[in-house]
């Protein structure tokens, strides 16, 4: 029995090569029927299978003024690199004691299981943006034009089986954060991801959000989506696009990426890009840093886009007994975040990465990073106003 070698080979590639499926927008019954070597029963089977498949729409934005920096290696696919690699000279480092207790935090035990109860900044709303912190790096953002965005949504644990591997390696299942209602989730217009790490990108959440929202991601990211009709835009550093009245710009961060490791067989270190986002409407800007260490990229962002009205800055995951230099290289300390906020000319800074719904990777405790931030804000006499949210709280700015 002949299966029409050319068509059968194409069909097998279509089924098992996700990148081909995402580039393929249509396979019609006419294409199948015109190959007369195929038995009619197989024809209808293929029509049914392909007809039920729903390939993703993937757009790749790499304009002339964007930046893509690759490592000088022969690895395939090509591996990305930070804009400013190499040893860092940090502007300042906290001197002990770095974690003094604060009356602004009410904690069940020292620096653990806390709520911020201090006096909040009195802010007259001028930007049109409302933000809700959903825990760790996840934010829900509403703009003046009615657009609803999710930033790095992770509603539960890491994707399986990494969640179990994390606990076996000494981690834990975090308390799950307060999340969007079903109605709110259904009304999300766009999802923005900073990078591929499990605490920022969760495939289970993509299923919940569905394919009615648009997805904006770094380069190399689309291959991690199931082929279920998702609208995905991959972007290089400094690329931008429109969403209703919003301008979305993907910007550098100082970090790395990896998701899959099979020793001696497969790894994807730095095969997808990483970064942050500038979200702008009518001259008002929200900056979401993504996971990042301190480097000159913050000054570059300010020079290209101007001052930032709201800065969502990571302040945790910098601590490790044996590898503290590496952890700080890819994660800002609270004082690094304050310096970066000054360089961005942030009108208000909202910290994240710590908290009751964090995994405490690279932290002393759930709220140690916030204690250090409060201390260093005074020590540095920082002029950047802080607005501290508890998980689930929202603010209109």
TrEMBL record:
Gene3D superfamilies: Ribonuclease Z/Hydroxyacylglutathione hydrolase-like (3.60.15.10)
One Gene Ontology term, aspect cellular component: cytoplasm
Domain Metallo-beta-lactamase positions: 148-351
Source organism superkingdom: Bacteria
Protein name: L-ascorbate metabolism protein UlaG, beta-lactamase superfamily
Origin species: Colwellia chukchiensis
Lineage: Bacteria, Pseudomonadati, Pseudomonadota, Gammaproteobacteria, Alteromonadales
